[in-house]
């Protein structure tokens, strides 16, 4: 673990405040306090929340999912689309009544949305019952913020960008015990013109490979079977580190950890997806045979304006290369419909790529202007209704493709990690190519790998253990 003095001091200070909070909260709340963390947005946020819950648990809080009984309520927010932001403001609004009934309660907002100055100003002015607001760089200071607020400080707002390092060794409280998130990097340097993430999460920075491997080893030792490596663009992992490492090499190192487990990862940017990486996926038996490879648009003109730095042909070549090198590989993707200036002809190019690749499934979004991004200032003459029609057309196209792909699984046998009990009391599990199959089986199989034959596709894949 590489720690500079400054970071060592920050870790010590964070841990010190967890102690201080432990001392004062029982008297304030008449026993152990309860904390509720509400998480919005992507897996990165879910992972951040696990680290925040680790700090809260270390500070003496019991973690609950019910904000009605919580003494501390946090909203870890997402800013990627307008819709996400509207939901959060609605839910923060509901805190007003609760705060009236329980004046010692603390309400806090953090994450990508909170990192924006405009949101910080709006919360300051219009949501007086929010006690604490901090951005994406200061989670480690949460115990300090709560302590100060409980001991007489005014409301606390901290979205400063003075620290962008990575603090290793702080506690984590993971939500599950089979499937776990493992962040390998933070931030993004790609500045796709529609996207707010680089502005709210700052520059890309990678964790040292020893720290990542050590955490993977700890997870495996404590029984995790499915490790999801996280980053906005995992394919550029390692840039700026003082060691000979890249994502392909990191996969090989984690794959070499003894044990029967699966390694998954997201998200892969097509421009950084190398042959070296495809070969590492093919060679590493624990790495899933699946790529979530967002292409956003099939129109070369739009891709250029989006600043994606590949064209549709390069993307399709990459898919062909991956299929050649990784037998049985499956693909999913993200697509934006209705980017400013996109015409129906551009949209049809997207449909062309969707048909040519044959994705397992798609995550499709209607373009949402984000203040401060270059695309938000571009002319956008197409109406929301028109974009909605294109969107539905794309969904219908993909539905047919997904159905055909799932139908083609019938009769095949897969190695499946049993990871959930479904609502109907059956087992559900994932194949190494990221297909989900439901089958009858005992709960004692949770966490084991079994061979499952797919019997049929209804609206899910259904199979039988063999
Ligand atoms: N770093 C990842 C994911 C980032 S956000 C990547 O590069 O793929 C997840 C998805 O949200 C993006 O892939 C994109 O499809 C979508 N998205 C981002 N900004 C958006 C916006 N302003 N409007 C609509 N969709 C957006
Ligand atoms: Fe956003 Fe592009 Fe970075 Fe993904 S790669 S987070 S879409 S700027
Ligand atoms: Fe949202 Fe931030 Fe993730 S904007 S999608 S929570 S990186």
CATH topology of the largest domain: pyruvate-formate lyase- activating enzyme
Number of domains: 3
CATH architecture of the largest domain: Alpha-Beta Horseshoe
Helix content: 25-40%
Name the strands of the widest sheet in spatial order: 2-1-3-4-5-6
Number of helices: 14
Q: Characterize the biggest β-sheet.
A: 6 strands, parallel
Outline type: globular
Question: Can you give the mean pLDDT?
Answer: 96
Classified by CATH, the class of the largest domain is Alpha Beta
Distance between the termini: 45 Å
Structural class: alpha/beta
Radius of gyration: 23 Å
CATH H-level name of the largest domain... which superfamily?
tm_1862 like domain
Report the portion of residues in β strands: 15-25%
E-strand count: 19
Ligand identities: S-adenosyl-L-homocysteine, iron/sulfur cluster, FE3-S4 cluster
Low-pLDDT residue intervals, each spanning 5 or more residues: none
Supply database-style keywords.
about 475 residues; alpha/beta; Rossmann fold; pyruvate-formate lyase- activating enzyme; OB fold (Dihydrolipoamide Acetyltransferase, E2P); 3 domains; six-stranded parallel β-sheet; globular; binds S-adenosyl-L-homocysteine; binds iron/sulfur cluster; binds FE3-S4 cluster
């Amino acid at each position: 673990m590489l720690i500079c003095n400054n970071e060592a001091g920050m870790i010590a200070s964070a841990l010190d405040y967890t102690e201080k909070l432990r001392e004062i909260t029982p008297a304030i709340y008449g026993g152990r306090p309860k904390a509720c963390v509400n998480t919005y947005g992507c897996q990165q946020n879910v992972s951040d929340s696990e680290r925040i819950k680790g700090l809260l648990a270390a500070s003496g809080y019991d973690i609950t999912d019910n904000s009605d009984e919580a003494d501390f309520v946090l909203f870890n927010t997402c800013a990627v689309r307008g819709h996400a932001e509207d939901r959060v403001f609605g839910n923060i609004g509901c805190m007003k009544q609760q705060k009236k009934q329980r004046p010692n309660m603390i309400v806090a907002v953090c994450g990508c949305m909170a990192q924006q100055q405009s949101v910080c100003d709006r919360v300051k002015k219009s949501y007086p019952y929010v006690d604490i607001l901090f951005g994406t760089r200061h989670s480690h200071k949460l115990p300090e913020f709560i302590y100060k607020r409980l001991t007489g400080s005014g409301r606390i707002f901290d979205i400063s960008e003075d620290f962008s390092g990575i603090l290793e060794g702080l506690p984590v409280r993971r939500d599950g015990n089979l499937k776990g998130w493992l962040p390998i990097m933070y931030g993004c340097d790609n500045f796709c013109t529609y996207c707010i993430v680089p502005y709210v999460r700052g520059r890309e920075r990678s964790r040292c490979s020893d720290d990542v491997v050590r955490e993977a080893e700890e997870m495996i030792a404590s029984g995790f079977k499915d490790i999801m490596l996280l980053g906005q663009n995992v394919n550029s992992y390692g840039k700026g580190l003082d060691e000979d490492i890249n994502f392909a090499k990191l996969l090989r190192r984690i794959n070499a950890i003894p044990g029967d487990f699966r390694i998954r990862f997201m998200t892969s940017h097509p421009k950084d997806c190398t042959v070296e990486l495809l070969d590492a996926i093919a060679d590493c038996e624990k790495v899933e045979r699946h790529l979530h490879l967002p292409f956003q648009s099939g129109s070369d003109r739009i891709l250029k304006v989006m600043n994606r730095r590949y064209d549709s042909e390069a993307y399709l070549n990459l898919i062909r290369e991956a299929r050649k090198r990784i037998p049985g590989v499956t693909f999913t993707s993200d697509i934006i419909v209705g980017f400013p200036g996109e015409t129906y002809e551009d949209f049809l190019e997207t449909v062309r790529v969707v048909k040519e690749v044959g994705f397992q499934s798609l995550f499709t979004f209607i373009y949402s202007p984000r203040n401060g991004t270059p695309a938000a200032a571009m002319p956008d003459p197409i109406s929301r209704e028109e974009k909605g029609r294109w969107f539905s057309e794309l969904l219908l196209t993909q539905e047919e493709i997904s159905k055909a792909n799932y139908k083609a699984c019938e009769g095949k046998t897969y190695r499946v990690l049993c990871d959930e009990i479904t609502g109907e009391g059956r087992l559900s599990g994932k194949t190494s190519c990221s297909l989900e199959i439901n089958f009858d089986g005992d709960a004692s199989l949770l966490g084991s790998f079994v061979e499952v034959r797919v019997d049929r596709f209804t609206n899910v894949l259904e199979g039988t253990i063999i």
